[in-house]
Model the fold of this input.
Amino acid sequence: MLGAILTDLTAMATGLAVSGKPLLISQKAAPIGITPSIVCINPNYAANLGKIQRLASCYGIPQVFYTGDRIRIKEGARLPREERMKGFKDVQLIQYDRPLDQFKDATPVAIEVRENAESLFEFEHPDNPVYVFGPEDGFIPQAILQHCHRFVVVPVRHCMNLATCVSTILWDRELKLHLAGKVMKKITPISWENRGGQFAEADFE
Ligand SMILES: C[S@@+](CC[C@H](N)C(=O)[O-])C[C@H]1O[C@@H](n2cnc3c(N)ncnc32)[C@H](O)[C@@H]1O
Done:
């Protein structure tokens, strides 16, 4: 039931329109955000967004929010093929311009190259994170930063590709959860997809 409601809300948010009509999340509706989550501010490249959706699926993150209208996923249109595996349908891609309003109990974490940001080496991931990332050609705007509780920089020599940065953060979280004894079950693509050791071409759409 909840799944069906969320699917409808996602369709409403993205304008992907199950019914054929583009709809919007009502400002009055209850927040739909589920942590851990990812927010991309005004991304420019569908390939990056597709990679991020794929990463979210790999790490069991149920929703990816993004703002702006530079990536338009119209009815019938889809993300690049290499980023579409059947399993990715378990991740809702939600276009919504006030994404942090969609979370009731969350810790927004700005991942950005900023003076005085905490290094990822020492960063302790909160239990209810919403990781916020900036666009490929800019930074997270002040209007969003002011709602963030934590500020983290990945300690490398240059600015990373957006999707690579998301990947780094999610792996760091997974590893730290593991080291803290909080990952109970070993999951691999073979066990999760029940592959029987074979990589199936049929896994792609
Ligand atoms: C390609 S970067 C944007 C370009 C960047 N603003 C610059 O310095 O030229 C896209 C986003 O990835 C994230 N990012 C990339 N490298 C990062 C790093 N080393 N530490 C933290 N965030 C990073 C940030 O969220 C950033 O807004």
